[in-house]
Automatic annotation (TrEMBL), chain B:
NCBIfam families, per the entry: moaD_arch
Record's protein name: MoaD/ThiS family protein
Highest taxon above the source species: Bacteria
InterPro entries in UniProt: Beta-grasp_dom_sf, MoaD_arc-typ, Mopterin_synth/thiamin_S_b, Sulfur_Carrier/Prot_Modifier, ThiS/MoaD-like
Organism whose genome encodes this protein: Mumia zhuanghuii
Amino acid sequence: MRFDTLIDSVGNTPLVGLPRLSPTPDVRVWAKLEDRNPTGSIKDRAALAMIERAEAEGVLRPGCTILEPTSGNTGISLAMVAKLRGYRMVCVMPENTSEERRQLLRMWGAEIVSSPAAGGSNEAVRVAKQVALEHPDWVMLYQYGNTANADAHYRGTGPEILADLPEVTHFVGGLGTTGTLMGVGRFFREAKPDVRIVAAEPRYGELVYGLRNLDEGFVPELYDPQYIDARFSVGPRDAVRRVRELLESEGIFAGISTGAILHAALAQAAKAVKAGESADIAFVVADGGWKYLSTGAYEGTVDEAEERLEGQLWA
Amino acid sequence: MAIEVRVPTILRTYTDGEKKVSATGDSVSALIEDLEANHAGIKDRLLEDGQPRRFVNIYVNDEDIRFSGGLETPLSDGDIVVILPAVAGGAR
């Protein structure tokens, strides 16, 4: 495979069968390796798509500053493209995200504005919107509402899965900005409506849900429930268990959100087995485990790992 | 019949600070009525015009009820219901 630049190599990731984790020869789970993207995560797709659309619309010109509420992968992806295309990058993120993330962002030249830990990414979004008002010439691509995010998956992730696995019956992705599920969901509604679209949503410790009132809640502007069929809340314990299982039985070293996604995928597999149905379940490996080593998720007992992750934005 | 209901910090003013309370009901709708009977005022924080409020998520055994039958999602003894506010969450 040959590409003119790194950016041209975004997407077209491998789909890998998991013979040990699949419960039977008729109910199979398949991992889409999104860590095989230039900066190591599925966000490369959304970041590139958002920047390219902004450039096409004339909103982004060389020397512009890009601003984004992001505690990691999107910031890293944007920072990479920004560096190659000549933009300044400012990321707003909660102060309690891992050191690897901050270091990676700084390495790619991004500047970090910290938002308070309590209130997690809600607060980062709020702070970023405020900063955007104060700097009207900065460009906030806004991954939570930018349709280019979902479109990247409608055009890329979804079609790639169908091309590699025409017999696909389920797609399982992580629910964050909702871009992946909205894009892949919309794609399958059109191309193969029988495919069941399943969302795995990380469940955090209490601090992250510490709103002052229920009207302060946040739902990404991209989110449209019509594109998903089921949504599961997965806690850090199950995510850690599954990510260790994935490594141990299939040799895939994945980030913790992938553990949550796998948990939901295996639940769908178990349902299919119980119903006596065959299934081909494609799920997302959103990134590799490298950035999460300092969280303690991969060492010690599951109890210890769960405890360590409770207070963190683990996915 | 006993259903464990986990309540987010913000609603614990209705449960005397308890994070877990017990309730009964054969559907989420019935459960909310039962919660209201013991924790007056909580129903109005959860529902608006008879539907879950926009920023309120309700899970039965970790599954979001909006996809499993809404307020008519059936409940059985031993089920766990979790109520969480909608948040932007973590690392994106």
